[in-house]
């Protein structure tokens, strides 16, 4: 990913928090000479060897998994809040642009089987059920329901490189920076408010 130095995020703690909070990503690989992409939750974790990984699974009916063996190099893309930035918000003439946060994770993928699959699914379910009024647990599901796990391919991605970009108008002076935040708040959409909040957290 092309990242101008001004927008490069190298704060590992912030990147880790971002990946945990924005775990619904896009898994990209090459299968049968074609690029494939699947939108799935990819959970940050540490494997038995102490290596940082992403865990996930896809349907066996999805041909993408058949490319994991022939080429284990994959890319996972994660997006955060984003919003259009109008040039009318500046006190000088300029061009329109977009503010956004994105993280690209490169790594080697391998299929996991057996108890590791159930362990991975349990972590996923526990994470997203924790705020439910009546949380479901993997251990409570019937054998019949758990038979459906035969229809998935579980995997882990050993992370090789992370590229993180946080483009939040860092190139603007304080006056225009504050005005952008104000205009984003006036738009009052979920995305514009989220971007405004991220801008308020950016060091100046």
UniProtKB/TrEMBL annotation:
Pfam families: FMN_bind_2
Domain of life: Bacteria
Name under which the protein is recorded: FMN-binding negative transcriptional regulator
């Amino acid at each position: 990913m092309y990242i101008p130095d001004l927008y490069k995020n190298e704060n590992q703690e912030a990147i880790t928090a971002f990946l945990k909070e924005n775990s619904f990503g896009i898994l990209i690989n090459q299968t049968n000479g074609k690029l494939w992409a699947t939108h799935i939750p990819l959970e940050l974790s540490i494997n038995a060897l102490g290596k940082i990984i992403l865990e996930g699974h896809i349907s066996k009916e999805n041909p993408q998994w058949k490319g994991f063996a022939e080429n284990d190099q994959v890319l996972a893309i994660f997006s955060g809040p984003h919003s259009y930035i109008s040039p009318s918000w500046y006190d000088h003439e300029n061009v329109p642009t977009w503010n956004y946060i994105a993280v690209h994770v490169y790594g080697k993928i391998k299929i996991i089987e057996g108890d590791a699959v159930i362990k991975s699914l349990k972590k996923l379910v526990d994470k997203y059920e924790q705020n439910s009024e009546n949380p479901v647990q993997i251990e409570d599901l019937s054998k019949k329901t758990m038979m459906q796990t035969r229809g998935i391919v579980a995997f882990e991605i050993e992370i090789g490189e992370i590229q993180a970009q946080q483009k939040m108008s860092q190139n603007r002076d304080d006056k225009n920076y504050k005005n952008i935040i104000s205009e984003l708040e006036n738009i009052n959409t979920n995305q514009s408010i989220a971007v405004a909040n991220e801008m308020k957290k950016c060091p100046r």
